[in-house]
Amino acid sequence: MRIAVLRETAAGERRVAASPETAKKFAQLGADIAVEAGAGLAASIDDAAYRDAGASVGDRAAVLADADIVLGVQGPDPDTLAGLKPGAWIVAGLDPFGQRARVDRYAALGAEAMAMEWMPRITRAQSMDILSSQSNLAGYKAVLDAAAEYGRAFPMMMTAAGTISAARVFVMGVGVAGLQAIATARRLGAQVSATDVRSATKEQILSLGAKPIFVEAVQGIEGEGSGGYATEMSDAYKAAQAELVSSHIAKQDIVITTALIPGRAAPRLVSDAQVASMRPGSVIVDLAVDQGGNVEGAVAGETVERHGVKIVGHRNVASRLAADASALFARNLYNFLSAHWDKDAGRPALPDGDEIGDAIRLTRGGQVVHARLLS
Ligand code: NAD
């Protein structure tokens, strides 16, 4: 049973889907691990580290030959997979809606494509959840990116030359990334406030020492849908939220936005007029920029200035911490495969009816099989 680990080819992608630690653990399960030469370099892992962990290292064709499972961070380019064994698994973040044509190509290759970002949010799958592990790092890095662009200090400082006041940081969207952003900004000494549509986050915000900013005026609204995710809000809620944000945002130095709604474009939370209300030198980091952005005027892959306010729109923020992001991503993949390991067969198995398999398997037997892609 051979597991192939590919070098990522997408622009700006620095992560790798296996670490020496997980390569070793796969070897201990009896798998033969083949790593494409240079796969880990951008994440500070050289080929020798994989060899020391018991993997072989070769070019892409050699690594893919006879592979039963192909691991990637992003979905591999189907053009580079010719000759893949029918029935081989492709396990990666596959962006099934954004890369729909690619999914069809995986089906045509006879592969079973597993979209790790569709892992169900159940207790058993927490250790396999790439969205959580990567969002956590992105939330941390967003605050550092904001601090780097901000021409002032974060903590309050009382010096002989006078006092500097603490930066005011507002976090919009308090999921995994937002919680880490709050914690990081607090560690840097900022005065932090945060908002979300899910009322359950209020307690979490308070427990991190930040101030919750919530819409109270619209009754009977609960922004939590299935699996702990947010739902699209009513127009009345959106209007109340916009008013609340307008008065609050004008007093903020830093805004970090992280709001996402599964299967939809990111909700627009900050308008151009609200950007204009902030004082010059303020910084906004839009972590949702890859999904369309929470902030009007944010540009994916760029830092732009509007009304004297910098709007930071880095893509793929987790990849900017490639070593740690890879280590956690690799463990997510290992935890998924090892939890389904069939010792007799010497490989993982995902029987029909398995909650995880049904949630993440996109293709099988030459067909696209996932309901979300067929409707
Ligand atoms: P996400 O990345 O989908 O969205 C980020 C945040 O934006 C969410 O908190 C969401 O409520 C918020 N949001 C959406 N629309 C908004 C709006 N208009 N205004 C303000 N905020 C808005 O979320 P996530 O980080 O994936 O986490 C979602 C939930 O899932 C959390 O409660 C998290 O703890 C939970 N979770 C559970 C598991 C598990 O059980 N396996 C794993 C990971 C996360």
From TrEMBL:
Gene Ontology cellular-component annotations: plasma membrane
Alphabetical list of Pfam families matching this protein: AlaDh_PNT_C, AlaDh_PNT_N
Superkingdom field: Bacteria
GO biological process annotation, one example: NADPH regeneration
InterPro entries for this protein: Ala_DH/PNT_CS2, AlaDH/PNT_N, AlaDH/PNT_NAD(H)-bd, NAD(P)-bd_dom_sf
Ranges where the Alanine dehydrogenase/pyridine nucleotide transhydrogenase N-terminal domain occurs: 4-138
Entry's Gene Ontology molecular function annotations: NADP binding; oxidoreductase activity; proton-translocating NAD(P)+ transhydrogenase activity
Gene3D superfamilies the record matches: NAD(P)-binding Rossmann-like Domain
The keyword Translocase belongs to this UniProt entry's keyword annotation: yes
Domain named Alanine dehydrogenase/pyridine nucleotide transhydrogenase NAD(H)-binding: residues: 147-313
Record keyword Nucleotide-binding present: yes
Enzymatic reactions: NAD(+) + NADPH + H(+)(in) = NADH + NADP(+) + H(+)(out)
Listed SMART domains: AlaDh_PNT_C (SM01002), AlaDh_PNT_N (SM01003)
SUPFAM superfamilies named among the record's database cross-references: Formate/glycerate dehydrogenase catalytic domain-like (SSF52283), NAD(P)-binding Rossmann-fold domains (SSF51735)
Keywords assigned: NAD, NADP, Nucleotide-binding, Translocase
EC main group: translocase
Purpose of the protein: The transhydrogenation between NADH and NADP is coupled to respiration and ATP hydrolysis and functions as a proton pump across the membrane.
Protein family: Belongs to the AlaDH/PNT family.
PANTHER family associated with the record: NAD(P) TRANSHYDROGENASE, PROTON-TRANSLOCATING NAD(P)(+) TRANSHYDROGENASE
Protein name (record): proton-translocating NAD(P)(+) transhydrogenase
Organism: Sphingomonas baiyangensis
Higher taxonomy: Bacteria, Pseudomonadati, Pseudomonadota, Alphaproteobacteria, Sphingomonadales
